[in-house]
Structures are given as C-alpha cells and as structure tokens.
C-alpha cells in the first residue's frame, strides 16, 4: 500500500471566463502535493492563488485540466469517498437542526436512523455541543456552527480530512480553542489532513509540514518546510517558542513577496 493518503500529481487547472469563453485563466500549474497517512499538511498562499481549487481537486469535486490524483495509491475517479471536506463557506443546512446536520452523511450512507442519531450525538458532545442538537444553525454562534460542521465531517470517520480555512471567520480566542480541539481529535486518530489557510501562524502551529504557494496565475508550490515542533502543542503557547519564531521568519521570507503580488493583483482586478 502507498505511504501516501493523497497525492496530487502535476495538477493544472485552467478556467474559461464566463463572459468570454475564449479567454482562459490558468489558476494552478503543474502542482504536486502529497500527504502521508497520518500527516498534517498545511498549504498557505495569498488570497485568490488557487488553494480552494486544489482542495476541490483533492475532493474529486473539480476535474483538473491535467494531472493525476491518487488516493492511497489508487487513481481517483469521481468524488473522493475516503475524504471528508470542511468548506470555506458556511455549509450547514439552515432548515435542519444541528443533530440533523451532523447525521446527514450517515443517512446518505444508509446507516439505520437510531444508530446514526447515536453517533451524531456522540460527535456533538465531542465537539462540546451536547444539549445543542435541537438548535438550528441561526440559533448558534459562528463558533458553534463551525463545531457542528466539524462534527458533520468527522462523524463519517474519513481517512483524509480536507479543511479550507475553516476558522478564518472566528475571533482569535474561539479560533485558538478550536485549533487545539482539532489537534486533540487528530492526535487521537491520526488521519491525513490537508489544511488550507492564509494564516502562517496557524499553519505552523498545527502542522507537520507547510507548503507555500506562489501568487497566481499559474500557482505552484515555491517552498516546503518541515515543522519540527514537539507535540502535543498548544497553538497559543507554541507561538512563543524560539523555534516557532525561527520557522516563521524562514517561511515568511518566501511568502511575503507572494502576498504582496496577490494583493496588487486584487487591486488591479477591482480597478
Ligand atoms: N470555476 C471557476 N471559474 C473561473 N475562475 C475560477 C473558478 N474557480 C476559481 N477561479 C479562479 O481561480 C483563482 C483561484 O481561486 P481559488 O478560489 O482557488 O483561490 P483561493 O486561494 O482559495 O483564494 P482565497 O484565499 O480568497 O479563498 C481565482 O483567480 C479565481 O477567480
Ligand atoms: Mg479559498
């Protein structure tokens, strides 16, 4: 069996413009990205560079223009059934209660209702929401909604977890609490995680490895860093360690120019 849970091999993604189909935009070019079983890998890059695009490719939701995706050594066809996906945007169904949101995936899988409910309850309590199962998304805080989304993803016990800036909308305290909770859940089960963020501190604090993407167009990895900080980690405390600061300096050196380029592009687009 392959050492790798997920391999994106020489992936390129070119989009056609909606207004002018003759016009093309290559978001991602020749990108190779691998995640080992049990490994926590973060991808950082400036806004609009192609992070969500890559994650969609790994989830099997977007077919790349060229390249191959392998899941535990097998070429991926269609949706990646071994992966759970936590989206960048709010993805809870507003007409379903918290518990019904958590158990929807189990229902699709045909798990009997009583059993699905029991597993969903267990996950709600694991993410600190026991007793909140009857609430609807609009009756929950932003942090609570993210917890429900986390339970919704993890209840399916995926071997690969894809997370797209899951906590970027949260205040810093809630965010750090949730980051620590994710690390605790991850260390208990050691799934492969591909975590997208534009927050370098978060990437370093959480990961075994950080991959830096260039600004678009034709985004591709321009740096890769092994994060050799001891675990278990507390995301707030780890930031004060000299090694953290050293890694941050090294990675920021690579990322800084790309962030500036990405920002300039956005301003140009807006003009
Ligand atoms: N379906 C599509 N059609 C046309 N262009 C697209 C499509 N999806 C993405 N793009 C373009 O590809 C580029 C990368 O988009 P993507 O959403 O992957 O960026 P991102 O790195 O996730 O950004 P952010 O950090 O803001 O979430 C952007 O320029 C975007 O406009
Ligand atoms: Mg994105």
Q: Secondary-structure blueprint of this entry?
A:
Layout: E1 4-16, E2 24-36, E3 40-44, H1 51-59, E4 66-71, E5 74-75, E6 83-86, H2 98-108, H3 113-126, H4 142-154, E7 160-164, H5 172-189, E8 192-197, H6 200-206, E9 209-213, E10 221-226, H7 235-238, H8 242-270
Parallel strand pairs: 3-8, 3-9, 6-7, 7-8
Antiparallel strand pairs: 1-2, 1-4, 4-5, 9-10
Helix pairs in contact: 2-3, 2-4, 3-4, 6-8
The chain binds adenosine-5'-triphosphate and magnesium ion.
Q: Provide the low-confidence segments as ranges.
A: none
Structural class: alpha/beta
The helix tally amounts to 8
Helix content: 25-40%
In one word, what is the shape?
Answer: globular
Q: Which range does the strand content fall in?
A: 15-25%
CATH superfamily of the largest domain: P-loop containing nucleotide triphosphate hydrolases
Strand arrangement within the widest β-sheet reads: 6-7-8-3-9-10
Intertermini distance: 51 Å
CATH class of the largest domain: Alpha Beta
Bound molecules: adenosine-5'-triphosphate, magnesium ion
Quick description:
With 271 residues, the chain is an alpha/beta fold. The chain contains 8 helices and 10 strands.
